[in-house]
Batch of 2 targets.
Target 1
Amino acid sequence: MTSINELVVLRPDDWHLHLRDGAMLKAVTPYSSAHFGRAIIMPNLLPPIVTSEQALAYRARVIAAVPAGHKFEPLMTLYLTEQTDPDDVETGANSGLIKALKLYPAGATTNSQSGVKDIEKVYCVLERMSEINLPLLVHGEVTDPEVDIFDREAVFIESVLEPLRQRFPALRIVMEHVTTSQGVEYVRSAQSGLGATITTHHLIINRNTMLVGGIRPHYYCLPIAKRETHRLALVEAATSGDNRFFLGTDSAPHLDGAKEAAC
Ligand SMILES: [Zn+2]
């Protein structure tokens, strides 16, 4: 009997990728396009990609940054704001350009200032997305300063995600970069319509890697790495064969100066 201990995926897809814009876009895109066939492109530029027209222009800039000979298809998303127009979303989705919308709670992560403060203000968009079967990608962390940074995902599930799923049962949702055993359990408990991306970062490191013996800023990213029990839950989910869990690298370049700084 031989057992498989190595699996080579020839051309995987990356279901969560930040390529940024301008010089950064040109610098990092070849690293993704060398390995991945397709990628879900995150819309949190400054200013964010909020309309189909902006997504179309951004898609052209991404394609221009792909080296000749690489076969890479960027899958575009829109940044959900309280001003998002459901008609524009539907038009973009029908044309095949827009594959999903991304929900950032305001202040949750890099360039999320334009995010949603009052979820009820986007109900009309979520309603339309349900009707046209367009997925919602969520950065699943509350931003309430009273909530401990290590608990923000678990609290988000209870206070935002579960009520949202009850209100929009037909809306397909992906919990992006799930980092906790509660997140894994929550996805597993769903009857349908819920999946999660997992990053390699959260499969490999726990919070000790970031904090023991000194603060290592290059391991700091949001959602923040959690304790070892959570990492083990993620590894278990990623290797379980349950196809509701899939890879989103969340490759998200920052300049050294922004990471190696007092804040
Ligand atoms: Zn991300």
Note: Strands lie at 14-17, 38-41, 73-79, 98-103, 136-138, 173-175, 194-198, 245-247.
Target 2
Amino acid sequence: MRCYICGGKKFGKRPGKVRDNSKLSVHECHSCGLVFLSSFSHITEKFYQNSKMHDTMPEVEAWCKTTRWDDERRFKFLASAMENRDLLDFGCGNGGFLVAAKAAAARAVGLELETRLTPHYESRGLKVFKALSEVDCKFDLITAFHVVEHLPDPAKELRRLACFLKKGGHLILEVPSSDDAMLKLYESEPFSHFTYWSCHLFLFNRDTLRLLADKAGLKVDYIKGIQRYPVSNHLHWLSKGLPGGHQKWSFLDSPELHAAYEKQLASLGLTDTVIASFSL
Ligand SMILES: [Zn+2]
């Protein structure tokens, strides 16, 4: 086995475990720092079409509520960039971001493999393709939120996606960070038994995301750290060893505190999420 990014052959095993598959372990490349699962054989071609990612098949409306905060955050971040532009949201999930994007973009369409969602898209008036082979036009912006880490050959898929960019267009990627402070700074053991998931084949940080762009033959416009979970969530993990602190202890949070915490974590490269813009 060689590192997908740098071809290195030496890996360390990360502490923790893959929460839903005890046979897998989490490797980290000694040369480039790429984090990846020890095997990808559990991901078959039909895995996502059949909603296997969601083991309990979430009810769509309840699912939309859980992603509303992320949908709004992403919309605010990209609102000016998408104004009067054509946008494709690759791996659009429940379509929450697309509903918001339609208000600003000239055209906002999605692509999603999960087949059970078709009636939901129709009810929201969303145009969602089932495969890239169906897409017959180009876009100013292609977004992919928490998608790239699921792909067994992400550089190949990014190159393919970039063929659907208009001249001067941008690919916007958001991924969970392999350098999350909960892992790299606080070294929370309970968190390391909770966060790794068999669907996340790779985890990137700012450096390995840049190397991924190189491998895909794409230019990096920017890479920046975003903190999704607030300080209440982190303190709860460190105190109780359990998730959900952002709900149970939400009284600890404020927009000012979150902005300051995010800024500090970003300056250290320790946010839980990374957002990047690539172009041809
Ligand atoms: Zn490597």
Note: The first helix runs from residue 60 to 82.
